[in-house]
Amino acid sequence: MLAQALVEIAQFHLIGEEAMMRLGADLARAAKAGDLILLDGNLGAGKSTLARAFLRSLYANPALEVPSPTYTLVQSYEEVTPALHADLYRIRSAAESDELGISDALETGIVLIEWPEHAAHLFNEATLIVRLTGIGDSRHAVIMASPKSTARFLRTLSIREFLVLSGYTEANREMLFGDASSRSYETIHRGDDAPLILMNAPKTPDGPPIRDGLPYSSIAHLADSVTPFVAIDQALITAGFCAPKIYAHDLNKGLLLIEDLGRTGILDDQGQPIAARYQASGALLADFNQINWSKNVAVTENSVYAIPNYSRRALLIETELFTDWYWPETRGEPASEIAKIEWRAAWNAVLDSLAGSEQSLVLRDYHSPNIIWRGDKTGNDRIGIIDFQDAVFGPSAYDLASLARDARVDISVELEASIVQAYVTRRYELGPFDEQAFAKSFAIIAAQRNAKILGIFHRLNRRDDKPVYLKHLPRVENYFGRSLGDISMAPVADMLKRHRFSFPGWSP
User: Fold this and answer.
1) d(CA 470, CA 331)
2) Is residue 416 within 8 Å of 446, Cβ to Cβ?
């Protein structure tokens, strides 16, 4: 009866209803539209309990009413990812199952079926089969998955194993969010304990080589594991800054259990910047850039992480996202090879003037999504820092440029000036400071970052099917235009003029 393509991926001995519910919730964390999930087992084996937990977890609603569809046959849940919960116990022939809308539901959502043996052909189409045996408080579950779904369902089960080994056997998992990378985050609840955050960051496979036999991620020094996060986290905490404590980790599997610093950020309830919080975040960077950061950070007793330099090669490859993605998406045709050569030459000339600029640890994504405001704290402890695994050593102006030209929220020219001034004022308080050199570095690195982001947002849409980032493009174009008027950006501005580009606040 079982399709040859499905393979057994796990077995569990489940004691009590709570264990069955945890399994259902864990499986929901890996489910996606197009999944046909069959719950196979005798009466009283726990199918409905598992289905109920699955749906409540899927929609992050522990109070969701999930009635048994035994008499209605089908129960629909129209959410972000719609689900169809069907019970085939009362159908008389396999043909009747075709009238339940299962095929249509799979086009946009998840289908969860109890008593699938009454429509045996479904076993050949299943994504996942959970076979339950036993009764009462003792049940046994065998889980089988299709080849295409095996990795993601194994991943969610390995997260539960990690929680068990970390002392969180009975913890509840709640999806928090995913970001522009392959990472995702969950809130972990255990009784009355303070919630923790689970970072799910599987090792990222290398992409195709694009230059000198290396993939983009290697050239741009993007983290491919959680090891850099652990290293930078420890460096920040040791230096007196607020980063999440790490309570458990599995470096090989890419799993971390970390402190939840809270949900309050530096934006108000309408998503607008709170000036005082941005200014405080800018002033913190002045203290940050005064630290004599070590380039080698201990991760475990036997391993050290070497923080990479933000090399010219890395800075250049990032700017090329503009010609690789932004250019063709806005011009309707790829940039010519000559144009690409001109672009690289212009940026090389600009980066020449960065030689000798002040260097520091660069967090690389220091802006509103990654800054937590802790209003009950004082000094720099008010500001929690997250998402820093791609940190490098580079121009100290970089993080201030990330903040003062926040890609996720409109920062007016006036607010940008006040953020920069908060930084400058604090730098002078701390000792000698070359404000003119810093301003030049700021203009260049702000342009470099926003040229990169213009390409990234188009790449996220076209390659990764994440169109939500396109809404930020007008803002980033505006930021890029602010930089092009600076004299230090003349080589890039001249190249763009020749190709008749224009941006808000700057035109050829």
Assistant:
1) 16
2) no
